[in-house]
Amino acid sequence: MNRSIRFVSIFALLLTLVLLVNLTIIHAFREEEYASNPLNQRGFYELKSTPRGQISAGGMVLASSAADEEGLYQRSYPSENPAAFGSVTGFLSDRYGASGLESSYNGVLNGTDSSLFASRWMDVLTGRDTAGANLELTIDPRMQEVAHQQLTANNYEGAVVAMRPSSGAVLALASSPGFDPNPLVNPSTADATWEALNSDPGNPLINHASQETLPPGSIFKIITTAAGLNNGYSAGSSLTGAPSITLPGTNTSLTNYAGQACAGGGSVTLETAFELSCNTAFVEMAIDVGTDEMRSAAEAFGIGEDYDLGLPTSPGSLGDIPDAAALGQTSIGQRDVTMSALQAAVMAATVANDGRRMEPYVVDRITGSDLEELRSSEPNEITQAISPEVAGQLEQLMLASERNTSGGRAGIASKTGTAEHGADGTPPHTWYVAYLPDQDVAVAVVVKDGGGYGRGATGGQVASPVGRAVLDAAGGA
Length: 477
Hints:
CATH superfamily of the domain at 217-362 and 384-476: DD-peptidase/beta-lactamase superfamily
Pfam families: PBP_dimer_2 (PF21922), Transpeptidase (PF00905)
Strand order of the largest sheet: 3-2-1-6-14-15
GO molecular function, one term: penicillin binding
Protein name: Penicillin-binding protein 2
Oligomer: single chain
Low-confidence stretches: 38-43
CATH class of the domain at 217-362 and 384-476: Alpha Beta
Domain Penicillin-binding protein transpeptidase: 158-471
Radius of gyration: 27 Å
Distance between the termini: 85 Å
Largest sheet: 6 strands, mixed
Structural class: alpha+beta
Number of strands: 19
Number of helices: 18
Organism: Corynebacterium hylobatis
Strand content: 15-25%
Helix content: 25-40%
CATH topology of the domain at 217-362 and 384-476: Beta-lactamase
């Protein structure tokens, strides 16, 4: 063969080989990268040409799609109060992408998820138009709207989470400030809305219920008490009621609220200390129990653990506990302890569920375009965090705590919290966790920075009325 022809042939063969390798890499390993690239308008128009699945809760449609005059499907959020549900549904915007369940369940909603392979083939075989699948949520619309209204009507920044202790189903997940998704999906208002939301110091695009972690204050005493009950303490155990206690190895004193003695000072029972939320008693008990037992109890209740809700979550933390002084501060939910409202609700729900911690979930069922069930969520027990006996003792203590809380009601098991943070003069975060033993519902509320009540704000004053209103709405849940 002529040398020039042989050279050209080899060169052509090499080019062909390079082309095949490149095509293999693109199709086998980088298909998703290119298919998901926002510059790939072909994929965009293909998805816009397919009806996206609905998101609904309790029969209320929260997100749906309708075809415009060009045959492209546009997303909308048609409930009467879309801002109440925006932190859960998220948004789907041509300009700014997706968030919330619209993002995490994108493949399910647009029909491309691998789990929908069989249903897609059935559509092909039967000649039906391909459509996305639907999400049916565990959210109770009335509870969600009441939670949202309680926060926004009072100009509170914070969050409310309600859940069913026996299963982990989330009944409400309200976040304030929040947002209405509709202006973000409307091209004529999207840019201005996006700019306003991102410049808002309250961070409305953050899910404050599951994503934001804050010092929990005295609601953490539920975990401290669990550690004590696990290690020989009982409701009648004797603890200090002194107005202050010096942290070991320091000259620093930790005081009760407003520097008051607990029930007159002297010795008090654990029941009295819990009912009156006496800091000094819990410092004494935690130091006696020790760091390992405290950390074990916190981990059993899920502190430091993420949950797969399809929504952004933060794990919270117990923080470092290098010595007894740090342990004393940790015991009352201060120092480096952080929790989200979701984790606080899980904590209360665990006590309500005889000590069994269930995995929280928001998506109840996935259905096809014909509304036939494709997949459903099953309750999942993560761990037996505490024994049923310890849970029963905690319930009695929480019933007593509610009786001593402003506006307290019989039949509610609760604990309030007032968490100091920031510089001196910064109003505290206020907390309330509670459950109804006879209705299988638990709630957690956090109102940030005192809710406008200043340095004197307390969980009983600010957060507990919100929680009770949400529990009142649980009658139909």
